[in-house]
What we know:
By secondary structure, the chain is an alpha+beta fold. Helices cover 40% and strands 18% of the residues. The chain has helices at 10-23, 32-36, 46-49, 59-71, 73-93, 119-129, and strands at 102-108, 110-112, 115-117, 133-141, 160-167. The strands form 2 sheets. It has a 3-stranded antiparallel β-sheet, covered by helices on one side. The chain has a two-stranded antiparallel ribbon with strand order 2-3. A hairpin with a 2-residue loop joins strand 2 and strand 3 (115-117).
Amino acid sequence: MTSPPYGAAQKYIRSTSLESGWLGFTTDKGTIDLERASVGREHLTKDERLATIASLGNGRLTAILNEIAEDHPVRASIYTNYFLDMERVLRNAALPAVNCKRLVVICGTNTVRGKHIETHEVLSEIALTKGFKRTLSLRDAIKGRTLLTTRNSDGTPAPAEFIEVFERDI
């Protein structure tokens, strides 16, 4: 697993949708099913919008998302679903049938409505609860290139990405 997915990877799903259309991998209905199956999506179903922040089970993340929800409930829902989806991804990676011995997670810090979410820390905590052990943790300072986390011209580029390596005994 690598980056993206980001919390709100709508730019990537747009690109993937376009590429899938060009290659003939989509149906006449378009790419809605592709978006619904992706992690880090902007458009949520009614049920997804009802997902509760408290169901994340991470006190620090819950507090940040509750603050975001006061200002912008839709953004909070998008990130709630992102972390719920990533929890499912990591849970599935830990299934015996998957046989995943090593997991590499690369991600940056997300800034949502002015609030910083240390995504690598949250995903690391989830991986640890699924039986993985962290074997390597690196910080890649983004120098000479930018990783914009917003489309606005006043957006602050992410200063680094984090590479977290996990392993487990099978």
